[in-house]
Design a protein that fits this description.
The structure is a homodimer. By secondary structure, chain A is mainly alpha-helical. Chain A contains 22 helices and no strands. Chain A has 2 domains: about 1-100; about 105-465, Na+/H+ antiporter like fold (Up-down Bundle). Chain A is globular and about 85 Å long.
Chain lengths: ~475, ~475
């Protein structure tokens, strides 16, 4: 019946069918959670089911492209819907939000994303915008921090400790670069100056965030600031970045040769790239930075040229064989295809990314609990805090020059994502962030995360029109 | 210095360098385990490090191709070496062997492998060898079971309960198809009749194994056999297989259209395939079968034609663009490339598989604890049990006809892998398998797993020479 529907009413099917079937897919976990299914596997096969369901539903996010929005927004919205079915009494997706394997794979996905984005850029291009990125990062940390600590603190939490106010400020400094990077990527704008400035500023922001977290934690717990701790942290973080880029650039050509000396196949090529990304991601986390900062640095360092000693992937030789009947022209064809292989590493990483990157954004959405929006007092305060959070970061765009589109850079810095939540969690653990304040920060994180993609899309498209 | 070595002595470098560097890579976990590295991430970034190390070292397994052995053997050996560094006092890799994320990804890898192998085959081809596969499976279960229960039981464990003897027999019936499938794949023999018979027999074996486990568990615990339990289990398992294949074949074309109605990109294509595989893998586990049996069935059901409504992957259009300077011939080139896209789903699955399939075999190796071989009594009994285990399965090859190479089929059924260990574990949990007997079974599993790849490689290559 459905097959007939697809054939007779292709237009209707195009919109209705995915929704119809997705509602069927959504109900699968209800069966699985009911315990009706008990195999000899336990948690691992059940996670296979989750992956099948979430991989599939994440791709519904692409439907949003039809109204001109980037897929990433669709993926987050899918996650938010699934994560809040509980409001309708359907707690089917609650286990997915806390499934350790899924959280791991999501993290793996965002590492792939930032690695992939790093691959598309290189150190030279980044250093051209280095000064602007630095200024954007500084403004984007200082203004939200001061506004959070003094303005928000004095307005709504006048009677609390300085420690609490400092944590409000700190949570407002964070930048979660994954979302902005995906918006730029989805709209084909990764190679613009604005994208590079935002990426660079986000890396610097992560270092500053690490220091701010150490400083405010120190003040909140002991009331004093241990300068030596902060000095060691800064040295480690900056040392890591310099070392990753310097050593990485020296080692990458050599590593490429080494890996290809073991095997020249396409599997080895991909293994080399992904292992390098994961290693640097781990090293970043070892000095206290976000793994994605390491993954981005790994991508910056690796260049197509480092993969030249690997063989063509199998399909290139298959294609060449298929072109043989062209006769003498087949040599020309082969020549034209030459060089195509070198870029191919990006295709390989993309293939793996097609699965795990959307998973990250769906899982991000799954963590969003909309019920915090139902408390009028929390919502009122949160809306003002969110407005301040927006303004603070948008002003960071002013730290650019030379024709850079300031609004695009500014809005690109807005999403707080998981980084803002980490700050709030640390504050809660230290006892300086109350449940109510935590909710306020969560709402601010939700709104900065959800509103930025459409705003950024609007700005980028308006800019295109002007240019045209 | 090393760069110069590579350039001046390419041959020496080809062999020595990978080993030199691998010894460096091996020592990375020592640093990480020491706790010297404490980031804000914890278990997830540490697993990134493990993945970087294990992905890289797994590829050293390909070095074994230089002495004519399949990579899968190399990957298992890498795992065995790393897993037994403890014998030298280096317990660096012990945490990896029990890391939940790695175990999950390894399981994901073997699901990908069997799915990929299923994709390469189809129901028609499989049903052609169905009768032979069925007979091979029956012989390969009955003979080892009788030999294990009566011969081994009476020889070495004359004074134990029938329950214990039954578990010895049961552990000898298992077939772990992953290893054999990889050997056939590595040597390009997946499309032979022998490979198809072994794959089919392994699926039937898994169902029979499920029933045997239920039967012997029932006898060992209650002393009686609950016929209804066994009947329900068989109905579920056979019902699943029939349903997966029948419903799958009806639904696949429709699902392909449905997914491509949401989006026609290459990411959607891969998501469709992998989600389908994971869903059926889960359903298999829900009826008590191994997830890989489901993944294989999913691959059998899906055919290139189900992917025809997806767009060409981006690189095919890039290639077409690159071929434009060929002028009028470029249309010919495009025509030649037509149809190439359809097969491409196998390339996509392979790309993801390049990472996670070798991980499965390294993790299999990591689980092997060689110290069980050091107890002379255990080793003596185990060697005889192993010999019987080999003979029992090799005799299964006699259940073939029509020019099928009986020895290749027989040896293909030999590896017991993780399935044999599951049986032994259940027996231990029921208290009928002693520590010593467990060790004997472990040695049998190790030897059937490690010795089969070189034997099978030898038989397949000898056969090639005869044909040439």
């Amino acid at each position: 019946m459905l097959t007939r529907l697809v054939e007779r009413h292709p237009k209707a099917a195009r919109y209705i069918l995915p929704l119809l079937v997705s509602s069927m897919i959504i109900s699968i976990p209800a069966y699985a959670n009911s315990g009706a299914a008990e195999g000899h596997g336990g948690a691992i096969p059940l996670t296979f089911l989750w992956l099948a369901v979430l991989f599939t539903l994440s791709k519904l996010g692409t439907l949003i492209e039809r109204i001109g929005q980037p897929s990433v927004l669709g993926e987050i919205i899918v996650g938010v819907i699934l994560g809040n079915l509980g409001l309708l009494g359907l707690h089917w997706f609650d286990p997915a939000a806390t499934n350790q394997y899924l959280l791991f794979l999501a993290e793996f996905g965002v590492v792939l994303l930032l690695f992939r984005i790093g691959l598309e850029s290189n150190i030279k291009e980044m250093s051209k915008v280095g000064a602007q990125a630095f200024l954007v990062a500084i403004i984007g940390v200082v203004i939200p921090f001061l506004a959070g600590t003094y303005l928000v603190g004095e307005l709504f939490y006048a009677d609390v400790d300085l420690g609490t106010k400092l944590f409000i400020g700190a949570a407002m400094t964070a930048t979660s670069v994954g979302i902005t990077a995906r918006v730029f990527q989805d709209l084909g704008k990764l190679n613009t100056k604005e994208a590079k400035i935002v990426l660079g500023a986000a890396v610097i922001d992560d270092i500053m965030g690490l220091l701010i977290l150490a400083i405010v934690s120190s003040i909140a717990t002991s009331g004093t600031l241990e300068a030596s701790t902060v000095a060691i942290l800064s040295a480690k973080a900056f040392g890591f970045l310099v070392a990753a880029i310097a050593v990485g650039q020296l080692a990458a050509p050599w590593l490429g040769k080494l890996f290809s000396s073991v095997h020249t196949g396409v599997g080895m090529k991909l293994t080399f790239a992904i292992s390098f990304a994961l290693l640097v991601a781990y090293l970043a986390s070892a000095v206290g930075l976000a793994p994605i900062v390491g993954a981005f640095a790994a991508g910056l360092v690796l260049d197509p040229v480092h993969f030249k000693s690997f063989k063509s992937p199998e399909y290139v030789s298959k294609i060449k064989k298929k072109l043989e009947p062209l006769g003498e022209k087949s040599e020309d064809a082969a020549a034209l295809l030459h060089g195509f292989d070198h870029k191919h590493i990006e295709d390989l990483v993309d293939t793996v990314g097609h699965l795990f990157i959307p998973l990250f954004f769906v899982m991000t959405g799954l963590q969003v609990k909309l019920d915090v929006l139902f408390d009028p007092k929390v919502l009122g305060v949160a809306l003002i805090v969110t407005a301040i959070a927006f303004i603070g970061k948008v002003m960071a765009g002013l730290g650019t020059w030379g024709g850079t589109k300031k609004m695009i850079v500014g809005f690109g810095m807005v999403p707080r994502g998981e980084v803002g939540l980490i700050f709030a969690n640390v504050g809660m653990a230290l006892g300086v962030v109350t449940d109510e304040l935590f909710s306020v920060i969560v709402v601010m994180v939700i709104l900065t995360t959800l509103l930025t993609p459409p705003i950024l899309t609007y700005l980028l498209k308006k800019d295109d029109k002007k240019a045209a």
